[in-house]
Amino acid sequence: MINVDLLITNIRRLVTCAAPDGPLRGAPFGSASSLEEAALAIAGGRLVAVGASAELSGQYRAAQSLDGAGLVAIPGFVDPHTHCCYAGDRADEFALRIAGATYQELMAAGGGIMASVRATRAASVAELVAQTRPRLDRMLAHGTTTVEIKTGYGLTTEHELAMLEAIAQLERSHPLSIVPTFIGAHAIPAEYRGNAAGYTQLVIDEMLPAVARWWAGQDVWREALACDVFCEEGAFDLAQSRLILARARELGFATKLHVDEFAPLGGTPLAVELGALSADHLVATPPDHIALLAQSPTVAVALPGTPFGLGHHEFTPARAIVAAGGALALATDCNPGTSICESMPFIIALACRYLRLTPTEALHAATINAAYALGRAAEVGSLAVGKRADVALLALPSEQHLGYRFGTNPVALVVKDGKVVVDRRRG
Ligand code: NIG
Ligand code: FE
Q: How high does pLDDT run on average in the chain?
């Protein structure tokens, strides 16, 4: 018998979401690799065996056992695009939008992202941590075990670094694994109104080098930090996005890009040209840009909570992306303006209806493909031996019920790095 820390036995069904050679595309994206009556053995926070319950029960002696009877085991969700570190809220703007104001009108009038920037600049690092923590608690309760968090509500070197500091404190003190992304180019701050070129230069000359220095001096993360840009009308145009990301690459950053959320500015070909980890939003993307993206290693990240949150009716053309051979991932985009949603199961429910993904495709998009979109697929995103033991156990008959059922939380248990961190079996 081999000693392990935790053995989860009698799991009704287990979906591995395994994809060791790159994100899932085409037919494998839609077909689940699964086991019935399965077990997971965990030691040192890692998966040491994934197999038949009868077999593993005879091979491993565990300090702690969990009964997975009636539950479906999946990898913990990976949420690869959020802006969930911010102060305050924008419920007042929601009321204005219900009354007919558009997101872009609110942004042009100095609200939108800038409203959250004012609140975030006024908050201390401790306040920012305190306001963000319950959001991470709710994500974890909904089965997310890895989350990306962007900066972008500071928009000065000092305040962007304060956001990174808050995110680092959360990574040290919260069970969720956090992947930070720097997006100093999230909006043109009020001080630079009418001077997008001047702010672009500030990001290039001052912020990127300062953030690179901060990154080199921290001891929380080992991987490269990603730099993102909001390439959009009213934010950064294509030339400015290119300048910022080119400089970022020179300084050793990985790259990501917000593209085609409202207007197609050509951000998608730029993401492909730069070898970006992901191109995100992709709502107004022209068909030839979809084809280009689909043939590249860059992951397409769809954020259906955003059009839904805005009450819009146009979504990412996910079927076209999949048909062209693209790698598709899903994220909440959790932010106080367009998508104040912390639940990947709800995003899957939206994706099945409005992106026409099957539950299996949506599950793969919310786990292993999302891990590739963050450059973390060697560590998380599938139930594979050697990876972090991040598991969500769902109180559902099968993964086919994910997305079908919506509005309630299907998660019974969450295991993070081999420890039970959420237990909702009694309610
Ligand atoms: O992804 N597009 C830019 N950023 C967010 C919105 C952030 C906000 O409104 O605060 C997004 O939709
Ligand atoms: Fe975003």
A: 98
Question: Which sign does the torsion angle of CA 341, 345, 347, 350 carry?
Answer: negative
Answer for the pair 211, 136: CB distance below 8 angstroms, yes or no: no
Domains of the chain, residue spans: 2-75+382-426, 77-373
Give the whole-angstrom CA distance, residue 108 versus residue 101.
11
Which atom of ligand 1 has the smallest separation from the CA of 306? Answer: 12
Query: If you average pLDDT over residues 233-258, what whole number do you get?
Result: 98
Q: Is the pLDDT of residue 273 over 90?
A: yes
Q: How confident is the model at residue 426 (pLDDT cuts 50, 70, 90)?
A: confident
| 204 Cα to the center of ligand 1, angstroms | 21
Q: Which residue is closest in CA terms to ligand 1's atom 3?
A: 230
pLDDT at 53: 98
Which ligand number lies closest to the CA of residue 148? 2
Whether 261 is in the pocket of ligand 1, judged by its Cβ within 6 Å, is: yes
CA atoms of 257 and 231, how far apart (whole Å): 7
Tell me the DSSP string of 370-396. HHHHTT-TTTSSS--TTSB--EEEESS
Beta strand extents in 96-176 (DSSP E only) = 144-150
- Whether the predicted pLDDT of 349 surpasses 90: yes
Architecture in CATH for domain 2-75+382-426: Roll (2.30)
Q: Tens of pLDDT along 387-403?
A: 999 999 999 999 999 99
| pLDDT tens string 61-88 | 999 999 999 999 999 999 999 999 999 9
> Is 336 close to ligand 1, i.e. is its CB under 6 Å away?
yes
User: Using a 6 Å cutoff on CB, does residue 335 contact ligand 1?
Assistant: yes
**CA distance linking residue 107 with residue 116, whole number of Å:** 11
- Beta pairing, strands 254-259 & 278-281: parallel
CATH topology of domain 77-373: TIM Barrel (3.20.20)
Q: How far does residue 94's CA lie from ligand 1's centre (Å)? A: 14
> In which band, very low, low, confident or very high, does the pLDDT at 211 lie, cut at 50, 70 and 90?
very high
Q: Is the CB of 338 under 6 A from ligand 1?
A: yes
Residue 30 CA to ligand 2 center (angstroms) comes to: 26
